[in-house]
C-alpha cells in the first residue's frame, strides 16, 4: 500500500520540500481540480522549464489554473478514476496532453485535500512475472541466511542494472552493522565484511523505510527542485512518500564521496523490525520508474519473508537444541548430590548453555567455583563486591564492554570483556557470572565515527579501528536463556536446597538422639542378658549333675539365644559407634588399610586367605580407623560369600571413572552373587539374604560400611548377579581442609 | 593393713549377685561389701577409713543413681585416707572414651563386664590371685 499517512512529529528527516530533478510534481485540489502548487521544473507555457525562467511571476504560471491546462480531459478522467484506489496504477501521458512528456507517466497520491501527481519518465517494461517467478523459485531452495541474501542481491542486481548490491545486516545487540553478502560486476569494491556505524543509518531512515521500503537516489548536475504555490497537506507526501523524494544526508554523502551516481536501498524487515538493507550502487545514473520500484519492493518483501522463515527455523532449531541442552543440564543439576556439584560436573557442561561463553564463576557459600576461562579469584571477588553494591537496581546485569561500567575490568578484559551478572539470592551475597572473552581484532568500517564534535572531510572513508574491551554482544535470545536458567537455579534449586538444609538439620538432631538412645539401650540391655546367661550357667554348674539331659539341652538353648542377643547388641553398638565417633581425616594408604584388615581377619578366622591387590591405588581420604573397618567388613563379606567356591578369588582395585567423573575403589569376589532386587537391602541392618546356617554373621557389616562411607560424603554400591560374584564400589568425598566432618 | 574385704559399688542386683557368686567359688574368698549406690559406698568408706578396716580393693560400676562410679572414684582419690586403695572401674561399656575417662579420674584398672559368667569367674579369680600375692607384700603406700 502506498503510504501517505503522516509521520510522527519526532521524524527528523529534512522537510526541505525538494524533489530529485528527474521528476515533476503537480499538486491539485482534490475537488476543484485546480493546480495549487507544482515543482519548478514544469515546462512553461512557452516551452522550457517553469523554474528556469528568471522571473518569479513566470514560475507560478500554472498555479490556480485548472488541471486540464496540463493534461487532456481523458487523462484527468483517468486520474479521478484511480485517485481513491488503494494502489492507483500509473497513467501514461500521451501526445494529447498539453504538457507533452508523452513517454512519461503520472503516479497519483491522495492526501486529505489534494491529489499529488508525480510525473516521471517511463522505462521499457520488463518481464516482471518471469523474474518474480524465478526469484521465488530460487528463494524457496535456499538453506541459509546468506543463500537468501545471495539470491536477493542477484535478482536486484539483474533488475536494476546497478554495479553492486550490498546485503547489509544490522547487528543485534550492537549499534553497528556488517556487509554479509555482496554481488556486483567488479567495478566497485566488494566491501564484504565491512562494518558501518549506527550513525550511518539515522533512526528516521529506519522509520521511513519501514513504510516505504525502496529509496532511490540519483545524483544529477541539476540541483534538487523546489516548488511554487501552496503545498498544504501535500508537503508530507512530497518529502516522505514520492519516489523522487530526496534522501537523508548520510546516504547523500555516501553517494557523493564514493564517486557514485546512484544509490538505491531496499529495506529488509523481520516482523516489522528492520533487519538489514539491500544497498545498491551504480557509477552511472540509474533511474527507476514506479514499476521498477514496485518490483524491487516486492523482491525485498520476498527476501524479507524468506529471511524471516530461515531465521525463524534457525531460532526454532536453536531453541529446540537449547531446550534439549537445558533440560539435560537442569536434570544434572537436580540429580547431583548437591548444587555445586551439579553446576560444575554437568555433562553437557554449563559452559555450553549459551554459545560463546568463555567461563562461568559461581560465588556460593562463600566459595568461588570457576568453570572455563575466568579472571582469577581475587578479581572475581572484587567484581562481586562491586556488583553487590552498584547493581541494586538490576535483577540481572549484562554488558559486552565491562570496562565502561567497571574500570578495573580493563585489567582482565581478555577473559571478561563481556559479563552477565546474576545474583542467586535476595541479599546478593551469592552470584553466578558468565564471562565472554574480548573479541580481539581489527574492524574495518566503511565510515568514520561521527560521534563527538562535527567532523570535517569525508564521512564515508574506510577506517580500520582496533576495538578493544568488547566481547560478542549478548543477544536478546541469549539473555532470555540465561535468565531462564538463572530463575531455575534460584527458584527451584536454591529453594529446595535450603529446604534440604533445614530437613538435614532436623535429621541430624533426630539422628543424634537415636545414637544416644541406641548407646544407652545397648548397654542397659546387656545387664539382664548377663543375668539370663550367667544364671543358666550357674544352674548348670550347681545342679547339672541332678538334671536330665533334656533339661540340660533347654538350658543350653537359653544360653545360645542369650549369646545371639548379645551379638546383636554388639552389632548395634558398632553401628552406633561409627556414627558417633569424630572423624580424623587423612589421606590413607589403601594398600595399608587392606593389609591391616587382612591381618585382623586372618587372626579372627585362624585361616590365611589371599587377595589380589591391583596396585597402584590412589590414597583414600577419610578416618583411618573407620576406613579400616570398611575394608574389614567388605573383605570379610567377600570371603564369606566366596568360601564355597573351589578357589575363592577376592580382588581389590580402583576403577578410574564413575558417572560423576571420579574414581571408585572396588572389592570383588567370585561368590554366590546377589540378585539385583536385593542390592539395596544388603546395606540395611540385619538383612540377611541367605540362611544363617550357610553363612555366619549377623548382617550388620554392610550397614556399618554404608554408614561410614556416607559419613565420608561418599557412596557405596553393588554390582552383582546371582552366581557370578559381587563387586562393591565405593568412594569418599571429603574436602582437603575439613578434618572434623559429619555427614 | 587392709582388711580382707572387697568393696563393690553396683546398683544392678543381678550383676552384684553374679559377682558375689563368682567370689564365693574362690578358696578363702574375701568378704564382699556390696553398696547399691555411690553415696552409700562413700559413706561406708569414710566411716571405715582406718587402714585396718579399709577394703583391700574397690570395684565400681560407672552407671549408678546419685553419685556415679567416676564421681566416687574422684572422691576416693582426692581423700588422703582412701587414695591409696586400689580402685577398678567395671562397666559394660567398652567405649574408648569411657575407658580413658576412668583412667583420667585416677582408676587403677578398667574392666569390661564379661558377658558370660564363666569369664567373670575367671576374672574374679585372677583379681583374687593378685590380691593374695600382694597380701604377702607390704601395703602399698606412695
Automatic annotation (TrEMBL), chain A:
Q: Where is the Histidine kinase domain?
A: 520-736
Could you confirm whether the keyword Phosphoprotein appears in this record? yes
EC number(s) in its UniProt entry?
2.7.13.3
What's the domain of life for this entry? Answer: Bacteria
Q: Please state every residue range assigned to the domain named Phytochrome chromophore attachment site.
A: 144-310
Q: Extract one GO molecular function annotation from the record.
A: photoreceptor activity
Protein's name in the database: histidine kinase
TrEMBL record, chain B:
Write down the SUPFAM superfamilies for this protein, in alphabetical order. Answer: CheY-like
Domain Response regulatory, chain residue ranges per copy: 5-128
Q: Which InterPro entries match?
A: CheY-like_superfamily, Sig_transdc_resp-reg_receiver, TCS_response_regulator
**One matching Pfam family, short form?**
Response_reg
- The 4-aspartylphosphate modification is found at 61
Protein name according to UniProt: CheY-like chemotaxis protein
The family database entries (PROSITE patterns) matched by this protein are listed as: RESPONSE_REGULATORY
Protein source organism: Neolewinella aquimaris
- Keywords assigned: Phosphoprotein
Where on the tree of life does the source sit, at the highest rank?
A: Bacteria
Q: What is the lineage of its organism?
A: Bacteria, Pseudomonadati, Bacteroidota, Saprospiria, Saprospirales
Q: What's an example GO BP annotation here?
A: phosphorelay signal transduction system
* Coiled coil stretches, renumbered: none
Amino acid at each position: 500500500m502506498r503510504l501517505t499517512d503522516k509521520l510522527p512529529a519526532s521524524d527528523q528527516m529534512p522537510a526541505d520540500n525538494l524533489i530529485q530533478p528527474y521528476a515533476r510534481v503537480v499538486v491539485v485540489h482534490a475537488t476543484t481540480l485546480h493546480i495549487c502548487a507544482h515543482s519548478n521544473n514544469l515546462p512553461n507555457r512557452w516551452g522550457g522549464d517553469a523554474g528556469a525562467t528568471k522571473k518569479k511571476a513566470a514560475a507560478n504560471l500554472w498555479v490556480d489554473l485548472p488541471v486540464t491546462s496540463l493534461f487532456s480531459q481523458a487523462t484527468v478522467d483517468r486520474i479521478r478514476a484511480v485517485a481513491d484506489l488503494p494502489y492507483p496504477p500509473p497513467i501514461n501521458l500521451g501526445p494529447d496532453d498539453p504538457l507533452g512528456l508523452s513517454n512519461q507517466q503520472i503516479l497519483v497520491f491522495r492526501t486529505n485535500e489534494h491529489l499529488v501527481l508525480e510525473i516521471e519518465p517511463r522505462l521499457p517494461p520488463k518481464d516482471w512475472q518471469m523474474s518474480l517467478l524465478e526469484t521465488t523459485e530460487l528463494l524457496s531452495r535456499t538453506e541459509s541466511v546468506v543463500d537468501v541474501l545471495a539470491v536477493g542481491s542477484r535478482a536486484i542486481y539483474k533488475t536494476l542494472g546497478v554495479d553492486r548490491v550490498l546485503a547489509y545486516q544490522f547487528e543485534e545487540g550492537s549499534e553497528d552493522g556488517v556487509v554479509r553478502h555482496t554481488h556486483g560486476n567488479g567495478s566497485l569494491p566488494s566491501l564484504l565484511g565491512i562494518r558501518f556505524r549506527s550513525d550511518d543509518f539515522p533512526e528516521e531512515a529506519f522509520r521511513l523505510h519501514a513504510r516505504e521500503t525502496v529509496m532511490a537516489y540519483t545524483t544529477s548536475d541539476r540541483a534538487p527542485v523546489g516548488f511554487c504555490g501552496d503545498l498544504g497537506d501535500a508537503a508530507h507526501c512530497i518529502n516522505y512518500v514520492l519516489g523522487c523524494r530526496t534522501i537523508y544526508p548520510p546516504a547523500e554523502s555516501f553517494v557523493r564521496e564514493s564517486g557514485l551516481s546512484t544509490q538505491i536501498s531496499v529495506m529488509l524487515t523481520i516482523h516489522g523490525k528492520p533487519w538489514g538493507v539491500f544497498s545498491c550502487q551504480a557509477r552511472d545514473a540509474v533511474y527507476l520508474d514506479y514499476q521498477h520500484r514496485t518490483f524491487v519492493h516486492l523482491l525485498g518483501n520476498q527476501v524479507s519473508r524468506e529471511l524471516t522463515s530461515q531465521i525463524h527455523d534457525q531460532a526454532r532449531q536453536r531453541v529446540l537444541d537449547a531446550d534439549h541442552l537445558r533440560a539435560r543440564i537442569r536434570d544434572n543439576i537436580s540429580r547431583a548430590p548437591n548444587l555445586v556439584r551439579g553446576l560444575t560436573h554437568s555433562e553437557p557442561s554449563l559452559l555450553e548453555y549459551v554459545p560463546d561463553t568463555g567461563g562461568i564463576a559461581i560465588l556460593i557459600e562463600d566459595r568461588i567455583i570457576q568453570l572455563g576461562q575466568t579472571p582469577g579469584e581475587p578479581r572475581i571477588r572484587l567484581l562481586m563486591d562491586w556488583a553487590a553494591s552498584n547493581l541494586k537496581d538490576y535483577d540481572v546485569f549484562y554488558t559486552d564492554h565491562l570496562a565502561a561500567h567497571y574500570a578495573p575490568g580493563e585489567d582482565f578484559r581478555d577473559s571478561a570483556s563481556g559479563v552477565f551478572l546474576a545474583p542467586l539470592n535476595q541479599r546478593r551475597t551469592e552470584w553466578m557470572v558468565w564471562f565472554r572473552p574480548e573479541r580481539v581484532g581489527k574492524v574495518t568500517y566503511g565510515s568514520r565515527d561521527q560521534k563527538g564534535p562535527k567532523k570535517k572531510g569525508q564521512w564515508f572513508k574506510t577506517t580500520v579501528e582496533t576495538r578493544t574491551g568488547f566481547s560478542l554482544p549478548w543477544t536478546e535470545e541469549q539473555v532470555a536463556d540465561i535468565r531462564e536458567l538463572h530463575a531455575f537455579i534460584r527458584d527451584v534449586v536454591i529453594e529446595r536446597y535450603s529446604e534440604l538444609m533445614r530437613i538435614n538439620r532436623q535429621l541430624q538432631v533426630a539422628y543424634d538422639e537415636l545414637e544416644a538412645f541406641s548407646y544407652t539401650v545397648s548397654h542397659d540391655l546387656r545387664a539382664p542378658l548377663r543375668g539370663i546367661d550367667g544364671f543358666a550357667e550357674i544352674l548348670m554348674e550347681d545342679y547339672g549333675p541332678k538334671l536330665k539331659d533334656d533339661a540340660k539341652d533347654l538350658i543350653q538353648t537359653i544360653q545360645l539365644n542369650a549369646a545371639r542377643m548379645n551379638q546383636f547388641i554388639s552389632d548395634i553398638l558398632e553401628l552406633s559407634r561409627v556414627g558417633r565417633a569424630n572423624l580424623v581425616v587423612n589421606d590413607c594408604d589403601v594398600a595399608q588399610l587392606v593389609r591391616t584388615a587382612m591381618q585382623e581377619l586372618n587372626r579372627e578366622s585362624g585361616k590365611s586367605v589371599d587377595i589380589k591387590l591391583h596396585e597402584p591405588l590412589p590414597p583414600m581420604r577419610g578416618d583411618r580407623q573407620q576406613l579400616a573397618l570398611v575394608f574389614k567388613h567388605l573383605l570379610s563379606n567377600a570371603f564369606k560369600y566366596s568360601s564355597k567356591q573351589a578357589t575363592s578369588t577376592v580382588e581389590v582395585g580402583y576403577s578410574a571413572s564413575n558417572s560423576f567423573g571420579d574414581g571408585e575403589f572396588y572389592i570383588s569376589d567370585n561368590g554366590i552373587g546377589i540378585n539385583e532386587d536385593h542390592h539395596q537391602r544388603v546395606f540395611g541392618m540385619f538383612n540377611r539374604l541367605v540362611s544363617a546356617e550357610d553363612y555366619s554373621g549377623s548382617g550388620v557389616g554392610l550397614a556399618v560400611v554404608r554408614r561410614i562411607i556416607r559419613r565420608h560424603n561418599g557412596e557405596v554400591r553393588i554390582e552383582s548377579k546371582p552366581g557370578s560374584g559381587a563387586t562393591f564400589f565405593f568412594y569418599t568425598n571429603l574436602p582437603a581442609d575439613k578434618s572434623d566432618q559429619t555427614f | 593393713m587392709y582388711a580382707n574385704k572387697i568393696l563393690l559399688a553396683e546398683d544392678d542386683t543381678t550383676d552384684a549377685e553374679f559377682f558375689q557368686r563368682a567370689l564365693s567359688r574362690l578358696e578363702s574368698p574375701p568378704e564382699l561389701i556390696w553398696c547399691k549406690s555411690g553415696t552409700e559406698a562413700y559413706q561406708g568408706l569414710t566411716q571405715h577409713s582406718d587402714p585396718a578396716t579399709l577394703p583391700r580393693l574397690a570395684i565400681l560400676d560407672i552407671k549408678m543413681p546419685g553419685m556415679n562410679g567416676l564421681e566416687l572414684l574422684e572422691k576416693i582419690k582426692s581423700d588422703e585416707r582412701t587414695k591409696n586403695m586400689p580402685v577398678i572401674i567395671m562397666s559394660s561399656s567398652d567405649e574408648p572414651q569411657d575407658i580413658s575417662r576412668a583412667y583420667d579420674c585416677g582408676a587403677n584398672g578398667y574392666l569390661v563386664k564379661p558377658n558370660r559368667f564363666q569369664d567373670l569367674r575367671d576374672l574374679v579369680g585372677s583379681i583374687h590371685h593378685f590380691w593374695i600375692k600382694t597380701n604377702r607384700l607390704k601395703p602399698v603406700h606412695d
